[in-house]
Amino acid sequence: MSTVFMPKTSFQVDKIIFDLDGTLVDSAPDLCAAMNHVLATLDRPSLPLADVRSMVGLGARALIGQGLKATGGIPDGFMIDQPLDLFIRHYRANIARHSQPYAGAHDVLRLLKERGFALGLCTNKPQDLALSLLDALSMRSYFTSITGGDALPFAKPHPMHLDHVRQSLPGRGAAVMIGDSITDAKAARASQMDVILVSFGYSPEPVESLGADLIISDLRALPGLIVKENHR
Ligand SMILES: O=C(O)COP(=O)(O)O
Ligand SMILES: [Mg+2]
């Protein structure tokens, strides 16, 4: 039996929860530079941007782990904490050198906030780095709640992360998740939340295969798709 993808075209919610890397901000160039800085100190070859892009999604520790695996492996007993620390220091110092909001991100966030939606951010980026990046790009003030991947015992795809953001937003209405990867889709499913995926992010798998309710190729489509829940 074949299943037909029937995208939803309207989402009635009060809360909109965004992913950060690959969804609102194209941060891969700066993540790639920090990765290659670490690899150089370990006498490993550098990785092209296209490879690093597809490794982003599970936080800094997983990113470094994947970078090491791709350049010779992780020797037995290798302590990842030191390269991770080096990565984070390099990344923090260069966090918005090349990173940019995707087209329309500012306008869409401003408009949705003006329309009365509560906006949250659920990212696997460590909390302090997420806040620094949002500050550097003047994006922090759109969000009522921001939770990084190290702020709780579990991060996406665990539902605790997304549930926490939903609960910390005002109101009791429904929420929709906007993301770019399988971690976003899985977290949303586990939290029984609709999920819209963007097609321009960092997913190594085709986004069509991730079970989204809708796929968009431009953030500017969102205001036409998401309507305020009617609480009468
Ligand atoms: O930094 C990462 O690895 C992932 O971040 P994201 O959850 O905002 O995509
Ligand atoms: Mg992402």
| Helix residue percentage | 25-40%
Multimeric organization: single chain
**Poorly predicted parts:** none
* Count of β-strands: 10
What is the structural class? alpha/beta
Distance between the termini: 41 Å
CATH architecture of the largest domain: 3-Layer(aba) Sandwich
The CATH class name of the largest domain reads Alpha Beta
Number of domains: 2
| CATH topology heading of the largest domain | Rossmann fold
CATH homology superfamily of the largest domain: HAD superfamily/HAD-like
Strand content: 15-25%
Q: Radius of gyration, rounded?
A: 18 Å
Shape: globular
Q: What profile does the largest beta sheet have?
A: 6 strands, parallel
How is this structure best described in words?
Its cofactor is Mg(2+). Its EC number is 3.1.3.18. Specifically catalyzes the dephosphorylation of 2-phosphoglycolate. Is involved in the dissimilation of the intracellular 2-phosphoglycolate formed during the DNA repair of 3'-phosphoglycolate ends, a major class of DNA lesions induced by oxidative stress. It catalyses: 2-phosphoglycolate + H2O = glycolate + phosphate. Keywords: Carbohydrate metabolism, Hydrolase, Magnesium, Metal-binding. The protein is of the alpha/beta class. It folds into two domains: 11-26 and 100-228, Rossmann fold; 28-93, DNA polymerase, domain 1 (Orthogonal Bundle), CATH 1.10.150. The protein is 35% helix and 15% strand. It contains eight helices and ten strands. It has helices at 28-41, 49-53, 60-70, 81-93, 105-114, 127-136, 159-168, 182-190, and strands at 11-13, 15-18, 25-26, 100-101, 118-122, 145-147, 175-179, 194-198, 214-216, 226-228. The strands form three sheets. Strands 6-5-2-7-8-9 form a six-stranded parallel beta sheet, with helices on both faces. A two-stranded parallel sheet has the order 1-10. The protein has a two-stranded antiparallel ribbon with strand order 3-4. α6 (127-136) links the parallel β5 (118-122) and β6 (145-147). The mean pLDDT is 95. The structure holds 2-phosphoglycolic acid and magnesium ion.
